[in-house]
Amino acid sequence: MNSINPIIAMDYPDPDVIRVDDTYYMVSTTMYFMPGCEILRSYDLVHWEHAAYVYDKLDSTPAQRMAGKENIYGQGMWAASLRYHNGTFYICFVANDTHKTYLYTASSIGGPWKKSEIEGFYHDNSILFDDDGRVYIVYGNKEVYITELNEELTGPKEGGLHRMIVKDSDDVYLGYEGSHFYKINGTYYLFMIHIPKSTGKRTESCFYASSLTDDFVGLDVMDDDRNFRRSGVAQGGIVDTPKGNWYAILFQDSGAVGRIPVLMPVSWSNDTPSIPIFGNKGVIPEEFEIENNRPGYNYAPLYGDDDFKDELATYWQFNHEPDMSLIRHDRGAGTLRITTGKVATNLVQAQNTLTQRCHFPYSRASVTIDASGLKEGDYAGLCILQSNYSFVGVTRKNAGLYLVLAGHTVVTPGIMGERKDDTPALELFRTKIDSPVVTLFAETKFDDSRTSEPPHSKSLDRAFFSYDAGNGETSIQPSASLYFKLDHFTGARFGMFIFSTKKAGGYADFSDFKYFA
Questions:
Q1: pLDDT tens for residues 174-224?
Q2: CA gap 260, 226 in Å, rounded
């Protein structure tokens, strides 16, 4: 079969991938969204479906619950290590809000997952179960370390191996990180990402050694941007097929849609030890052959419609840990009622915002809202969630209902972003409506042209909004700019939301969500 990249045209960054018999599993960073730590399943490495979430909630801290004005945007879990050893699945990751290292284990990919902690903080870690029964964790940024863990996997082994194995130069924008550590045919291989100043783009590197006490020797193995916005493809895992062929899944920054996974073949040199060759000598081929372990298998979609007449589909995630006492799911009526539990200044403080990833290069969503239950000062509707959010919605003011377009516009250049967590949204459009029932539309267009502009240099991605209050769909101007920034660190998402600016207790009923890409 021919492979076409990206394999998933949505925000699934920091992939780690394994194979168990004929099944591939891939874990991805989910940051602050919950349920969290999503695992996908595939039989051909090209098509993927949801397999499991590792947790519904993490530590239920005030910030994870969005108590008051607290939040964990730009934090939460990331860069998990996924392993399968002696009949057990292992997931290890850090959360950058709690500064803890979490280890989850399960005998089945669907769980239940048992939670524990490893003493210490192991940034972008990778676990290795060695042949002799010893267990190691590799981690770090710029200075990358290996530490031997105790048998219980609760912390470092007393007297065990602990050493720095790789150190990046100072001539980089991003030092080595994103570790993926393997032992293959007796050789230890460490794959990492970095951004040299000489190229200014993400690059995949490999270091290798015959012993954990030897010096690790390294080279760059992937320096390709697929001719897309000088955005390099790097950081991820490698995996072999049942027939012994090797592939890598790395991610690529793709503008406001986020970081999307890219598949490429990996071959091995005839050197001793053998050196991995990513793609066609470091260039990702447009098409290549790959095995299909289950021809004809029908994959469940990773995004889609919801009539709310059944359990919430697995492609939904809340913006933080939800307060389920504020949500009423009426399956008979096909409605989802969300009630506010606090006063909020703007969209990013809203609890229980229910989201789906946007799709590259185009996606469109709509939802019908009944705003009868809004209190004075409430806003409810459909948003594009990032730090520079935009939304179309309904608000109640002076006892009347108004259709509004509002948002927060990024004005500072660069990748860091500009948080406006406690600033009211800027209203760009307002019109009075007679009926509380209105259908809202949001549309995203992500620039997919081959351009030399780096992905964060200017707005190449846009959002468009419209509504139908009973007289047909009406477009609203202006469109909104979309950016990927590190203050939220996630790709754009559609979201159903409600928040109260004056008094909690208002509610909105959502129904008939549609998704087109």
A1: 999 999 999 999 999 999 999 999 888 999 999 999 999 999 999 999 999
A2: 13
**Distance spanning both ends of the chain, measured CA to CA:** 23
- Express as a percent the part of the chain with pLDDT over 90: 90
Position 459 confidence tier, pLDDT thresholds 50, 70, 90: low
Nearest alpha-carbon partner for 291 in 24, 52, 82: 24
Q: Considering the entire predicted model, what is its pTM?
A: 0.96
Question: Whose CA is closest to 515, among 306, 317, 307, 305?
Answer: 305
CB 436 within 8 A of CB 510: no
Compute the mean pLDDT over every residue in the chain, rounded to the nearest whole number. 95
Classify residue 338 as left (phi > 0), alpha (psi -120 to 50) or beta.
beta
Instruction: Look up residue 443 and give its amino acid.
Output: E
d(CA 94, CA 124): 8
- Sign, CA dihedral 21-148-138-186, equals negative
17-38 tens-digit pLDDT: 999 999 999 999 999 999 999 9
Edge-to-edge strands of the sheet including 217-222? 172-184, 187-196, 203-209, 217-222
Which candidate, 439, 488, 441, 492, places its Cα nearest to that of 462? Answer: 492
> Quick one: 416 exposed, middle or buried, by C-beta within 10 A (0-12, 13-18, 19+)?
exposed
Do 320 and 32 touch, CB atoms closer than 8 A? Answer: yes
Sequence length of the chain is: 517
Q: What is the pLDDT of residues 48-78, one digit of tens each?
A: 999 999 999 999 999 999 999 999 999 999 9
Is residue 454 reached through a cis peptide bond, with omega within 30 degrees of 0 on the bond before it?
no
Residue 226 Cα distances to 11, 23, 266, 429, angstroms: 17, 28, 16, 39
Mean pLDDT of the 315-321 span: 98
C-beta of residue 148 within 8 angstroms of C-beta of residue 158: no
Q: What is the dihedral of CA 116, 118, 120, 126, to 10 degrees?
A: -120
pLDDT of 456 > 70? The answer is no
Cβ atoms of residues 481 and 459 within 8 Å: yes
Task: Please give the helix or strand (H or E) that residue 129 lies within, else none.
Answer: strand 126-129
CA nearest to 63, candidates 267, 319, 328, 238: 319
C-alpha neighbours within 13 Å on the C-beta side of residue 366: 15
* Single-letter code of the amino acid located at 273: P
Confidence of residue 418 (pLDDT cuts 50, 70, 90): confident
C-alpha span between 397 and 465 (Å, rounded):
21
Longest CA–CA separation in the chain, Å? 77
Kindly state the tokens that stand for 342: 């606090």
Q: Distance (Å, rounded) from C-alpha 296 to C-alpha 374? A: 48
Instruction: Look at the alpha carbons of 122, 87, 290, 12 in this order and tell me if their dihedral is positive or negative.
Output: negative
Alpha carbon of residue 183 to chain centroid:
28
Q: Chain centroid to CA 231: how far?
A: 17
